[in-house]
UniProtKB/TrEMBL annotation:
It comes from Catellatospora bangladeshensis. SMART domains: GGDEF (SM00267), PAS (SM00091). This is Diguanylate cyclase. NCBIfam families: GGDEF, sensory_box. Keywords: Membrane, Transmembrane, Transmembrane helix. InterPro entries: Biofilm_reg_signaling, GGDEF_dom, Nucleotide_cyclase, PAS, PAS-assoc_C, PAS-like_dom_sf, PAS_4, Rev_trsase/Diguanyl_cyclase.
């Protein structure tokens, strides 16, 4: 449809300028174009999704289009004999006046999106530009320098200029206000149509003989351009249903300065050509008004700049104060702060880097983190970086074990925060705290809670933890665990004869020989007194019995305590079965150990084998 409108516009304007069609046909073409404009505006106003404020504008433009259509039809009547030409011309002019007033009013009423001080500045700019256009209208109304002799012509000129100023006011307001009730493409074509229509309106009543086709062609072009703009608005709303154009209101505008230049040029021209006529005095007054408005606007700009500079100085002072405070905190903080880029490059390191790792923080800046840390510490740091980079905005807390430049190890608690999306940071912030003392103390407390203080062997707590892990591990076919319960023979006599210190030394020797007799993967624990437990993982019946025999052989070697030779004999109960039945194995091994103590043959090893008995635990003498 846009293509059709363009073709019709070119044909109508061309035919009118060439004079190949009578004025009646031109009026019909103009009336059809205005009617098309009105209908298209109604379609835009009824389009779903159009902003409420824009609906009022397009409805008003539709009403104005119907008035313009009526005006064209009334001018069509001036060629007939039924209506007096003067009356028809007056009626057409009146209807056109109402149409322009409606269009200008809906533009003026369109709400601005500028608030506060910028609204005052925008109004001053608008007043300056409109003062320049008023001056231009004054110049246009007095073409000879003085009022025309025909009062009707003066009234017509004033009316035409006033209506044109109304349309110009609405357009300038939308231009400076940062919001318009139409899309950009439609707005450009609307502006072109308004300019051509204003030109034809200015010259309609002062037209010279032979210029009527030019004025008529301008009116037709205006009608078709506005129709094309309405159609384009409708089509563009497929992509933007709101149908409006929003942009940030400009912080300054060149239009007031252009107005000053224009009025000054007009003043010089008027004084040089006509002198101080009535029109010349009006140009002088208008130039002064425009200059004063610009000076007032400039003064507001100076005040705004002064306030801005004051706020800027205050902000800079506060910024320096905060920076000094931050530097003071960072310089004396015991915690380390690192800023690392996405590529792993250290961008900032606080002075605590020297205390924690023995690395100069200034030398660390700009280097990959792999070059700052010791080689053995790099993988853990890289895993931390990869994890936090993969989680934008998240915090990742991890313990790290690193090494100081002097070779000592440190435990650190690192919390990494992903701030790569923050333009003011653009990296990963890592806050590091030295927790070596706390970690060492924790390990000491943990060792004290899980180990026997005399022998250093695991106690019942650690043994139960190991048993829990065995229960949680998936069961493997053919895999068995064995529990060996040991009790020293005649240990009470050692305490009674040689004293408790000798008994403690004997227990220490027994613990060492037990550790030597088992594999590194096995667990040797002291339950209390002279009772010991050995947990053999992944073994067989023969392997468990062989270990028990090896332990007894090691314990039979004499022990020299305070010049006394002591025999550390023992009785061993062995229970073998699945690891998830650890408690039952412990009870069976304990029972087997007491059977071994009472064995009259002197065999100190008894075995309970669950793997061969389908759920029962018969005691059996271990093969020699």
């Amino acid at each position: 449809m846009i293509t059709l409108l363009i073709v019709l516009a070119l044909l109508s304007v061309g035919a009118t300028l060439a004079g190949v069609v009578p004025a009646t046909v031109a009026d019909v073409a103009e009336a059809a174009a205005w009617l098309t404009f009105a209908v298209l505006c109604l379609r835009v106003a009824r389009r779903e999704g159009l902003a409420c404020a824009a609906v009022s504008v397009w409805r008003g433009l539709a009403v104005a289009g119907f008035f313009f259509t009526t005006s064209s039809l009334l001018r069509l009547g001036t060629d007939g004999e039924k209506a007096p030409p003067v009356a028809a011309a007056i009626a057409a002019t009146a209807v056109t006046t109402v149409g322009i007033a409606v269009a200008g009013w809906v533009m003026i009423r369109y709400p601005l999106e500028v608030r506060g001080p910028p609204r005052v500045r925008m109004r001053l700019d608008l007043a300056t530009v409109m003062a320049a256009f008023v001056l231009l209208a004054w110049y246009q109304c007095l073409p000879g320098g003085d009022p025309p002799g025909n009062p009707a012509q003066l009234v017509a000129n004033v009316l035409a200029c006033g209506l044109a100023l109304l349309a110009v006011f609405g357009a300038i307001k939308l231009l400076l206000g940062g919001a318009a009730p139409f899309t950009l493409a439609a707005g450009v074509i609307l502006g072109a149509g308004v300019l051509i229509g204003s030109w034809s309106l200015f010259n309609m009543l002062t037209v010279e003989p032979g210029e009527e086709p030019l004025i008529e062609a301008g009116q037709i072009a205006c009608a078709f351009l506005l129709s094309i703009a309405a159609r384009m608005q409708y089509l563009k709303m497929h992509h933007d249903p709101t149908g409006v154009t929003r942009r940030a209101a400009p912080t300054y505008s060149r239009l007031p300065y252009l107005a000053v230049i224009g009025t000054q040029a007009l003043l010089v021209t008027e004084l040089a050509v006509e002198g101080l006529t009535l029109r010349g005095w009006g140009v002088v007054v208008g130039t002064v008004v425009v200059s004063m408005l610009v000076m007032l606007r400039q003064n507001l700009a100076f005040l705004d700049n002064a306030a801005l500079l004051k706020r800027l100085k205050t902000s800079m002072r506060d910024l320096r104060r905060h920076e000094e405070r931050f530097r003071s905190l960072v310089q004396h903080a015991s915690d380390l702060t690192l800023l690392v880029g996405a590529d792993g490059t250290v961008r900032f390191a606080s002075p605590a880097l020297w205390e924690l790792l023995g690395v100069d923080p200034q030398a660390a800046a700009g280097r990959p983190i792999g070059e700052v840390l010791r080689p053995e510490d790099v993988p853990a740091a890289q895993r931390l970086l990869e994890e936090v980079i993969a989680s934008p905005g998240a915090d990742v807390r991890r313990p790290l074990r690193v090494h100081h430049a002097d070779g000592s190890s440190r435990w650190l608690e690192a919390m990494a925060t992903n701030r790569l999306d923050d333009p003011s940071v653009g990296g990963v912030i890592i806050n590091v705290r030295d927790v070596t003392e706390a970690r060492v103390l924790e390990e000491q407390l943990r060792h004290q809670a899980t180990h026997d203080p005399l022998t250093g062997l695991p106690n019942r707590v650690l043994l139960n933890e190991q048993a829990l892990r065995l229960r949680q591990e998936p069961r493997q076919p053919g895999r068995h665990e064995a529990v060996l319960m040991l009790d020293l023979d005649d240990f009470k006599e050692v305490n009674d004869v040689l004293g408790h210190q000798a008994g403690d030394r004997l227990l220490t020797v027994v613990a060492d020989r037990l550790r030597e007799s088992v594999r590194p993967t096995d667990v040797v624990a002291r339950l209390g007194g002279d009772e010991f437990v050995v947990l053999l993982t992944g073994t067989t019946r023969d392997g468990a019995v062989a270990t028990a025999r090896r332990i007894l052989a090691a314990l039979r070697r004499p022990v020299l305590i305070d010049g006394h030779e002591v025999d550390a004999g023992a009785s061993v109960g062995v229970a073998i079965g699945p690891g998830e039945e650890f408690d039952a194995l412990m009870r069976a091994a304990d029972e087997a150990m007491y059977q071994a103590k009472r064995d009259p043959t002197g065999d100190r090893v008894r075995v309970v084998d669950r793997t061969a008995q389908g759920g029962t635990f018969p005691a059996a003498r271990a093969p020699a």
